[in-house]
Amino acid sequence: MNQLVARVRGRKKPFFYKLLSDKKIYEFDISEVSLVEYSSDHLLDGDSWFKVDNFSKRKFFLDFLEKQFISSEYNSIPKSKYKDIIYLCSVQDSEYFFQKITPSSYVTKTFLALGDELVIEDNIDRVVINQLPDAIYFKKEDRLIFRNLATISSIFKGIDMLYKEATQEEVQQFIDLGFIKVSNGYDAQKVGKQNRKRIALALATFTAMSNDEKDTIFDYVQEYCENLNFDKSAKKFEISSEEDMKFLLYGIEQRFYTTVCGKEKRLANSVQRL
User: Using the 8-state DSSP alphabet, how is residue 116 labeled?
Assistant: First the structure.
């Protein structure tokens, strides 16, 4: 069973309409990709997708996905709703392929149709179907996979909670932990978006450490971050800029390492638990 449906904007039902029946839109072989548990500090390889397991238990799960899909329950989309489409969903057996629709998805041009006959099509409205969907829900496995969280956040409302960014209170809490001395006018108000994301991770990591582990981390940061001033008697790092804060946070998350061959010091720009 293959069915292409569209979710349209508006406050009144119906929200979903049928577009096409018995047409398989996407060919996707899950065995050819690598799945990674979603983490905001992981950069995907070209053949990798993020995954969220037990998706139906999440607050951002769609009611549309809960019940069995029955084509006869949906009306065909009227022409007046074409421009109101928010996203497409290709239902292919127990797999649901999602594509976000934006103004750039619409194309209105004159085309030369290269079929059995050459035909000029004037000012035909078209929606571009991407080669790959933005997200796929595997109902049997109860798993959602995707590549870009920002792209699908308008489809799955609230899913951006996976991208945790420290609040102003959490940033101040981190700075007040006692091992940071801010200077040069730098303070919690000047911590940017990327460092807020890193603080959300580092705050949990650091507070879970024992005192001995914290001392080990301080030595580790000093070894790799020679640009950071460290007061050994007070056990405080001087942080005067976003760059200083970034390297301190990388140190707490143990992103620095030395290669086995060549002994070259490096920074891991992306992390994946093994």
Answer: S
According to DSSP, the β-strands at 2-8 and 16-21 are: antiparallel
90 close to 25: Cβ distance less than 8 angstroms? yes
Give the residue-averaged pLDDT of 148-153: 93
194's enclosing H/E stretch is helix 193-207
- Residues in the chain, overall count: 274
* pLDDT tens digits along 252-269: 999 999 999 999 999 887
Residue ranges covered by each domain of the chain = 2-162, 168-267
Token representation of residue 231: 């007061």
CA angle at 87 for the pair 105 and 144, rounded to the nearest 5°? 120
User: Tens digits of per-residue pLDDT, 68-114?
Assistant: 888 889 999 999 999 999 999 999 989 999 999 998 888 887 888 88
